Amino acid sequence: MSERRVLSAFFSYAHHDAETYPDLVKTYTETLERRINARLFGLDVRIWRDVDGVRLGAIWDERIQGAVKAAHVLIVLLSPRWIDSDYCQKEYALFRQVEPRSGDKGYVACILIRDFLSSKPNISTRTKQKSTPA
Description:
single chain; alpha/beta; Rossmann fold; 4 strands
């Protein structure tokens, strides 16, 4: 039997969203990983997410940078909080920086958790600027 190829994904989300909806991140990552693995033969998808609150401490650089650099796919739980998060922006920038150097093309997959451009009148200027196509 041949060995399954591992595809690593990094799940990027705003911790505020996870605090507001406690099971959101865990449910998305576990369900997504299980469904993808059930449908793909010869491929083992592993989704990394911050389960220990790493962003809150000084070890952010080490653990999160390593996981982002190892990822073939960046999965973004897109929300106004994600766009406003400096940590999330660092994750995205690092993935885009590392992506061309890896032999494989890296991919960014976004999961929109709410339509925030049309339904949120008090959205921050930063969010509006980053979300509006040029």
